[in-house]
């Protein structure tokens, strides 16, 4: 069949290939099998779930062809940004590249925080670096939590006072 109106024909044909069970929807499992990093590792479950949830308008845990098409555009934008910050073209982002990326994106984060992210999200090695999937995940989470913080920081002073439950509510509604 032909692509539905408003869906890129290439996205439609990829949707059909990824929709392994021919349900007309893409699940987290199907998405994970379709996306790979530059080192040929599949995207991790957390990132796939975040992205499905972002484009799942029905809250069914899966996306239709329209959501998939939008998701592919979203991934391409992140991939372009990732390649821009991957200065040495290694296919992954090192500590110094991550620091530069944060700075250029307008985040004033300490080297210790970047090191913490590397420890949490990089593959274990003597020279840890971030793959595309984790870069997308980190950026989505940073954006989401920054938005939540800004809602509370109405005076834009960089500090907020929160109750423990307000903090948990911010995390749960944006991260899970």
TrEMBL record:
Keyword terms of this UniProt record: Calcium, Cytoplasm, Cytoplasmic vesicle, Endoplasmic reticulum, Membrane, Metal-binding, Repeat
Organism, scientific name: Bucorvus abyssinicus (Northern ground-hornbill)
InterPro entries documented for this protein: EF-hand-dom_pair, EF_Hand_1_Ca_BS, EF_hand_dom, Peflin/Sorcin_CaBP
Compartmental location: Cytoplasmic vesicle, COPII-coated vesicle membrane; Endoplasmic reticulum
Annotated SMART domains: EFh
The protein's name: Peflin
Domain spans labelled EF-hand: 6-41, 73-108
Keyword Kinase recorded: no
Source organism, top-level taxon: Eukaryota
Lipid bilayer topology: Peripheral membrane protein
Keyword Protease tagged: no
An example Gene Ontology molecular-function term: calcium-dependent protein binding
Record-level GO BP terms: COPII vesicle coating
Pfam families according to UniProt: EF-hand_6, EF-hand_7
One Gene Ontology term, aspect cellular component: endoplasmic reticulum
């Amino acid at each position: 069949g032909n692509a539905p109106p408003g869906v890129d024909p290439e996205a439609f044909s990829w949707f059909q290939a990824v929709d392994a069970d021919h349900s007309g929807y893409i699940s987290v499992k199907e998405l994970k099998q379709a996306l790979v990093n530059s080192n040929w590792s599949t995207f991790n479950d957390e990132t796939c779930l975040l992205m499905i949830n972002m484009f799942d308008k029905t809250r069914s845990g899966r996306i239709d062809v329209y959501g998939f098409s939008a998701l592919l555009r979203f991934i391409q934008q992140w991939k372009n940004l990732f390649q821009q910050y991957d200065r040495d073209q290694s296919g992954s982002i090192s500590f110094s590249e991550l620091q530069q990326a944060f700075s250029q994106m307008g985040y004033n984060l300490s080297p210790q925080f970047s090191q913490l992210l590397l420890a949490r999200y990089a593959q274990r090695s003597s020279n840890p670096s971030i793959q595309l999937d984790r870069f997308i995940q980190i950026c989505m989470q940073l954006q989401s939590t920054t938005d939540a913080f800004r809602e509370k920081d109405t005076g834009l002073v960089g500090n907020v006072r929160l109750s423990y439950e307000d903090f948990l509510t911010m995390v749960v509604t944006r991260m899970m």
